[in-house]
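A.,

Following up on our hallway conversation. Structure tokens first:
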């Protein structure tokens, strides 16, 4: 459905209707009706931002329902399977997470996703109606997210690089088939996958989805971790995929900074805890700067190598406030070079790289959640023109094609799921901020 010629008000109403359609039991929101029938971790963070502009209470429910799936050790899983859906794989029967790991015996996946929810909670607190006495509710959510941070630092760091957290699966970066992982995916030993069938391919979309070989590696990692035990203390050294991931660490750092503000707003005294964590992560992120590429890069923690090509994750240390002014200037130059090649930003991979693929998922297309964070990041460093351009590009793509999951940087197509929740939610957030 084309939305061209629509006013901002029309877009706002359409976006609200998408969230309503994708909402389940008035408590959580599925990313899309068609492809993703459960609750995803970072999706719910972005989705809560959207809800906060139309039904504030519902935004808090979104975070609370996600945290119903939190594990006793503090991890917030990447998917919470509130209700069984046959049409999705890997589902609870593939993951086989022992129920005793979760607080409420809810089925979940066995890994996590980039931790945006702490930052979202702080924004919800800032945007609340001060008349409303909901400090106790925020304090409880704050504590739950603090234990999520604690889990990251206790279970996902490893000397000597204990100032960065490890990601153990491409799905934990949220950018499943990023070209950053190409060389690593090939080294994952293949498990017996005879029992597993992909359900994300619908015949007409194969060119937009990860290749079968990538998917085999994703599932082999799942089966390997399932056998060792997702919560096993010796999981890290046995993991076949160990990466210092820019998305995960940038979002964790920004969350630590935001949680520090939230803590003092709630009258707590956790500043030393957050200060130590932020300082460590900031030092860690600096080690990911590549002078050769003039950009931040992910690092393979097994070989120690930085992983080219440059992707849009390279901009996220701006969002974390972890870049120096010179680094920010280099990233601004890079953004402008990319934007001179295609009329819409921000592509997921440097459009000059061989790995760039215009239509394939996280290898070229534009995604609105990363656009939102990159725009926020440039604004932090005073590049308001870039921030405004990214926002304008994002809304123009929606106006042209509808609320798609991702878009080609030449502006020709919206791809993936058509009524995608975080695309709708971030449009609501952007347009809602304008109205405020
Ligand atoms: C895909 C995306 C991931 C997202 C999920 C649900 O796996 O790569 O980032 O969270 O779908 O929308």
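Then the amino acids I'd put at each of the 436 positions:
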């Amino acid at each position: 459905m084309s939305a061209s010629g629509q006013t901002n008000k029309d877009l706002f109403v359409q976006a609200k209707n998408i969230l309503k359609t994708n909402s389940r039991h008035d408590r959580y929101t599925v990313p899309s009706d068609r492809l993703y029938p459960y609750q995803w971790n970072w999706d719910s963070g972005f989705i809560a931002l959207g809800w906060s502009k139309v039904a504030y209470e519902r935004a808090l429910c979104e975070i609370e329902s996600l945290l119903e799936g939190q594990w006793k050790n503090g991890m917030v899983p990447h998917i919470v399977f509130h209700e069984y859906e046959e049409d999705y794989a890997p589902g609870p029967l593939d993951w086989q997470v022992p129920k005793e790991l979760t607080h409420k015996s809810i089925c979940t996946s066995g890994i996590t996703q980039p931790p945006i929810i702490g930052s979202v909670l702080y924004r919800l607190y800032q945007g609340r109606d001060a008349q409303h006495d909901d400090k106790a509710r925020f304090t409880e959510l704050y504590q739950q997210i603090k234990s999520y941070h604690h889990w990251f630092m206790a279970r996902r760091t490893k000397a000597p690089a204990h100032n960065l957290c490890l990601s153990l699966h491409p799905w934990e970066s949220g950018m499943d088939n990023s070209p950053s992982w190409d060389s690593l995916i090939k080294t994952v030993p293949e498990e017996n996958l005879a029992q597993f069938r992909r359900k994300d391919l619908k015949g007409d979309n194969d060119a937009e989805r990860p290749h079968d070989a990538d998917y085999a590696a994703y599932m082999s990692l799942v089966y390997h971790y399932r056998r060792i035990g997702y919560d096993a203390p010796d999981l890290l050294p046995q993991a076949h995929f160990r990466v210092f991931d820019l998305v995960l660490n940038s979002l964790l750092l920004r969350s630590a900074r935001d949680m520090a503000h939230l803590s003092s707003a709630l009258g707590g005294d956790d500043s030393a805890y957050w200060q130590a964590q932020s300082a460590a992560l900031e030092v860690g992120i600096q080690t990911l700067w590549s002078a050769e590429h003039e950009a931040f890069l992910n690092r393979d923690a097994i070989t120690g190598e930085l992983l080219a090509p440059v992707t849009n994750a390279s901009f996220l240390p701006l969002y974390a406030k972890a870049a120096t002014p010179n680094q920010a200037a280099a990233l601004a130059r890079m953004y402008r070079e990319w934007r001179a090649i295609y009329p819409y930003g921000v592509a997921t991979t440097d459009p000059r790289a061989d790995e760039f693929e215009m239509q394939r998922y996280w290898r070229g297309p534009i995604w609105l959640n990363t656009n939102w964070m990159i725009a926020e990041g440039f604004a932090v460093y005073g590049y308001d023109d870039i921030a405004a351009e990214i926002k304008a590009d994002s809304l123009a793509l929606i106006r042209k094609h509808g609320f798609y999951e991702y878009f080609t940087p030449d502006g020709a197509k919206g791809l993936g799921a058509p009524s995608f929740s975080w695309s709708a939610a971030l449009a609501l957030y952007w347009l809602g901020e304008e109205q405020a």
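Residues 31, 36, 40, 42-43, 174, 176 surround alpha-D-glucopyranose (CB under 6 Å). Curious whether your intuition agrees with the design.

B.
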